[in-house]
């Protein structure tokens, strides 16, 4: 009887290990899919926030650029370096 149990244990161990491995693999796929879905939703939310901020504040930047074109500022201090003269 003891040899029969050893043979049964030796023959069922790889099958049992394979079943456990397959079950853990399937559970891992489900967990990964949920993580992927949540990451995609978080990315979508961040993209929408950035897009709305870009569209709202883009007008302000344009107004500043138009103001700068109408009223250019002269450098008050410092020196101007001409890059064409550096190589000479």
Shape: elongated
Major pleated sheet: none
H and E order: H
Briefly note the structural class of the backbone.
Answer: mainly alpha
Alpha-carbon distance between the termini?
99 Å
Give the uncertain stretches in residue-range form.
none
Number of domains: 1
Q: Count every beta strand, where a strand is a DSSP E run of 2 or more residues.
A: 0
- What Rg, in angstroms, do the CA atoms define? 34 Å
Question: What layout of secondary structure does this protein have?
Answer:
Elements: H1 2-70
Report on the architecture of this protein:
- The chain contains 1 helix and no strands.
- It is mainly α.
- It is elongated.
- The termini are far apart.
Record keyword descriptors for this entry:
88 residues; mainly alpha; 1 helix
Short structural description:
The protein has 88 residues and is mainly alpha-helical.
């Amino acid at each position: 009887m003891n040899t029969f149990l050893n043979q049964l244990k030796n023959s069922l161990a790889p099958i049992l290990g394979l079943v456990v491995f397959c079950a853990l693999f399937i559970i891992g796929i489900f967990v990964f899919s949920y993580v992927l879905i949540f990451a995609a939703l978080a990315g979508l939310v961040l993209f929408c926030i950035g897009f709305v901020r870009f569209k709202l504040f883009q007008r302000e930047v344009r107004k500043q650029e138009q103001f700068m074109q109408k009223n250019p500022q002269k450098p008050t201090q410092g020196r101007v370096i001409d890059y064409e003269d550096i190589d000479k």
